[in-house]
Write a structure and sequence with these properties.
The chain is mainly β and 115 residues long. The protein has strands at residues 4-7, 10-12, 18-24, 33-39, 46-52, 57-59, 67-72, 77-82, 91-99, 102-105, 109-113. The chain is globular and about 40 Å long.
């Protein structure tokens, strides 16, 4: 098992940037896949970005070129750098870890993009 705690959300103006962090309760070296999902009001939760233990990454088309996922194994933390934010990025962002086919989720952090 693993507990995940997100941080870094907040209110930002269109065109701005935020960096989300996801701190894991144990080493992430052996966690196959870690990722960020988001859920906007009235919409289903969607994958934003994911990173494998080998460092391969995958992004939703809507965030390619603007968001970057990374992991710091020494700090047991996964990051999501979000640039050029727009109002459509407003959502609760959740950290996810896949461990032996089981999904673990953080509590979520709110990101609001508004002027």
């Amino acid at each position: 098992q693993v507990q995940l705690v997100e941080s870094g959300g907040g209110l930002v103006q269109p065109g701005g940037s935020l960096r989300l962090s996801c701190a894991a309760s144990r080493s992430i070296l052996s966690i196959n896949i870690m990722g960020w999902y988001r859920q906007a009001p009235g919409k289903e939760r969607e994958l934003v970005a994911a990173i494998t233990s080998g460092g391969s990454t995958n992004y939703a088309d809507s965030v390619k070129g603007r968001f970057t996922i990374s992991r710091d194994n020494a700090k047991n933390t996964v990051y999501l750098q979000m640039n050029t934010l727009n109002p459509e990025d407003t959502a609760v962002y959740y950290c996810n870890a896949v461990v032996r086919s089981a999904n673990f989720w953080g509590q979520g952090t709110q990101v609001t993009v508004s002027s």
